[in-house]
Amino acid sequence: MIGGDAAGMSAASQARRLKGPDELEIVAFERGHFTSYSACGIPYWVGGEVSERDELIARTPEEHRSRGIDLRLRTEVVEIDVDGARVRARDVDSGAESWTSYDKLVIATGARPIRPDMPGVDAPGVHGVQTLDDGQELLDTLTRARGRRAVVVGAGYIGVEMAEALINRGYEVTVVNRGAEPMSTLDPDMGRLVHQAMEGMGITMVNDAEVTKILTGDDGQVRAVATDDAEYPADVVVLGIGVRPETTLAKAAGLPLGEYGGLLTDLAMRVRGHENIWAGGDCVEVLDLVAGRERHVALGTHANKHGQVIGTNAGGGYATFPGVVGTAVSKVCDLEIARTGLREKDARRAGLRFETVTIESTSRAGYYPGASPMTVKMLAERRTGRLLGVQIVGREGAGKRVDIAAVALTAGMTVEQMTALDLGYAPPFSPVWDPVLVAARKAAAAVRNKTP
Amino acid sequence: MIGGDAAGMSAASQARRLKGPDELEIVAFERGHFTSYSACGIPYWVGGEVSERDELIARTPEEHRSRGIDLRLRTEVVEIDVDGARVRARDVDSGAESWTSYDKLVIATGARPIRPDMPGVDAPGVHGVQTLDDGQELLDTLTRARGRRAVVVGAGYIGVEMAEALINRGYEVTVVNRGAEPMSTLDPDMGRLVHQAMEGMGITMVNDAEVTKILTGDDGQVRAVATDDAEYPADVVVLGIGVRPETTLAKAAGLPLGEYGGLLTDLAMRVRGHENIWAGGDCVEVLDLVAGRERHVALGTHANKHGQVIGTNAGGGYATFPGVVGTAVSKVCDLEIARTGLREKDARRAGLRFETVTIESTSRAGYYPGASPMTVKMLAERRTGRLLGVQIVGREGAGKRVDIAAVALTAGMTVEQMTALDLGYAPPFSPVWDPVLVAARKAAAAVRNKTP
To answer: What is the pTM of this model?
Structure first.
C-alpha cells in the first residue's frame, strides 16, 4: 500500500479481514505521521467545533499494526518499478532507501492542493489545509496572529468551510474567488444564492478576482493578498483552491493517467492494463455515470469505498465501484449547499439537450416552526425526461435532500417518475410536496411542453 | 367532487388549471366548515407549536371559489346514484336535500377515526384528532381541564405525535397501547427503541394493554382509562387508534372496495369498472409496490398526489399514480422515526424469504458536534438481494434519511447496488459511510453468506 489514509488503510484492513497474516503480508508506506484521518474534518478542527486533532483519526498506527499490518510511517515511496514488481522507499528522517517487492500493489497517494506559483505563496501565515500537519500549522498561526483579518483564496467547498471556521474563530473574513460566483460546483445562478447568504453572515465575497501575489511585511509575515485591481489586508491567508491527483510516482512508472491527471482503473479498481496493481482514493479518476466520462472527485466517502473494493479484490474476493453521480454537500454557517449530477455546463459538454427549472419551497410544512426556505434547481434531458442533475441551497434539512436525487440518478429515473416518489412526509420533516417533488413536477411539465 | 380536503380540492384545482369554467363546471361538496387543510398538522396546533388554526389551511373556500369552483360547504352527499349519474346532497344545517347530476365524479371522502365501541367513549374530555373541529374541541378541553393528566390511547404515529403535543402543553402523559411496542408500523425490536426513548422523555408507556372502558366522574367528565388490569387516571383522553377509509357512500353505491374497506382504483385513479368516477386520498387503497398488493395508507402526501392525478385525467390530460412503497416519518419530541417498505411480518405475509440486519451509526461524523446515534434496520430478499424495507430510529437527521431507501425501493435496487450509492458526505451531514450505506453493506454480506 502506498499511502496510509482512507483508501490505502481501508484496503489494507479489508484485505486483512479476508486473509490472515499467514496468507497475506501487508506493508503500508505512509510519508506522514498519521493514518486513516478525516481530512474533511480539518475545517471543523480549525474552527474549534472539533476540539482535538486526534478526534479526526479514525484508526491509529498502533491499531493498524495490532491487526497485522506492517505500517511504515515517515517512509515515502519514491519509485515504482512495475517490471520488477517492487517499490523504492525512503525514510523521510534518515534519507535511507530500500527496495520492497510486491505481488500486489495498491496506489493510494491521494491528492495535493493546488498551490499557485506566485510571489509570497510560501510566506509565514499562508496555509493550505490538506493534511493534519497543515491544520496544526494554521492553528499555530491563528494563536500567534496579531490581527483578526483572514483572506481565503478560493470559494469551493474547502474555501467556504474555511470561511466558516475563521468566522467561528472571530476573524473578519474575505473570500477571494476567481469565478463569477462562489461554489463553482453549482451553476452561477445557484452560486449567487450562496454569495448572498455569505454576505449576510458578514463574509466579504470578492468574485471574478484572480490573486496575483501575496504581500509580506517587514517581518516577512503575510500582510495582504493582491489581485490586479486591489489589495486585501490579511493576518492569515488560507489557500482553498482545490486539489489535483498526486500521481507523480504513477506517471514516472508509466501507469495510465486521465485528462485530470488521475490514475485510470477498471471497475474493480485495478489500474488499467495491470492485473496486480490497484489504485483508489483521491489519486484516481472515477467514472461519472451521468456524463459518461471520467472525472476527478476528491472525497473521503469515495476513498473509503475504493479501499473497500480494493481490499476485497486484493484479498481474493470480488467487488466493484461502478462510479459516481457527483454528489457533494457542504455548509457555511447555517447555509447548506448540495449538488449531484450535471450542471448546465456539464450537460452541454456531454452533448445533452435539457430543460432546467428552479423552484422555491421550504424544509418543513410552511406552518411548522423552523421551516426555512430552500431553492432547488433541476435539470432533465429533453425528450427522455431523464434526471440529469439537482442543486439545492437552503438551511437545515436542505443538504441531505440531495440524496433523493443521487439515488434517482443512479437508477436512471425520469423526472416524471420522480413526481410519484413516496418520500417521507410529516409536517416537521417536509411540506406535503417535498421540495424535490415540486422541482420534479415542474421539470416534468417543462419536458412535456417541449415534446411535440 | 365529494369531499373538500386534500384529494378533492387538489383534483378540483388541477382540473380547473386544464379546463376553464366555460369548458368544465366543477361542484365540490364538503360537509365541514373548512377546505384543503392539513390534518397532519393538528398535533402541532394542539401542542402549541403552530399558534393559529388557520395556518393549517392551505387554501380557503373563498380562494377556491375565486378560481371558479362551486364549493358547497356544510353540504353532505348522502347518496351516489351511479346509474343515474347523480348525487344526492343534504344541507347539514337545514336538512334540505337535492340531486346534482354529473358527467364525472370524484370521490374523496377521506377516512374516519376508529372509535372503539366501549363505555364512556363519548364522554366529555375524550377526543379524536381527525378534523380541525376535533382539534378545536380538544384545545377547549385542555383550557378547561382541572388536572394535568392525559392518556393517549394508541401508539401509532397519531398517538406519539399527540403524546408530544400534550407533553408540550405540560401534561403528564400515559400512552396505552394494544401492541407489544409502540409504532406498530415498525418491527417490535425497533418499536422498543421508541418505547425506551419515550420513557426517557417522561412519557409513561403501557404496552400489551387493551382499553376496555373509559370511566367518568360524578360530573360526567372523563376521569380514567381502564384496561382489564389497571386504571389510568385522566383529565383528558386522546384517541389515536388509527383510521379506516370512509366509504359508506361508495359501498352503498356498489362501488368496488378492497380488503381494508377502501375504494379500488386503476393506475389513473379511476374507480375500477367505472370510466367516469375517480377516487383518491384516504378513502382509497393503494398498491404497495414492494408487497405487490393493496394497502390502506392515510397520508396527506398521497392524497395530494392522487388529487393531482385525478384532476389531470378529469381535465382531459393523462397521469398515473403507480403506488407506494410505504414510507412514513414521525417524531416524538426529538426522536425521529421512519420506515419504508416491508416489516418482517409484511415480508412473510408476502411470501418472501429475507435477511435482516440492524446497525448503529451516527447522524454526522462521530467527531462533529451534534452527532447523534441512529439505528437502521434493513431487510433484503434472499438470493436476489433486493431491498425490501428500512426502519430508522434516531434523533435529528434520522427521519428523512429514509428517502434514500424509498427511492432505492422504487427503483428495485439490490442492497449490493446500494453499497455504491453516491450519497452526500461532509462531516456536518454524515459519517464517511452514511448509516444507510453501513446497513446496506451488512445486508449485502448477509445475502452473500446465504447464497451458496
So the answer is: 0.96
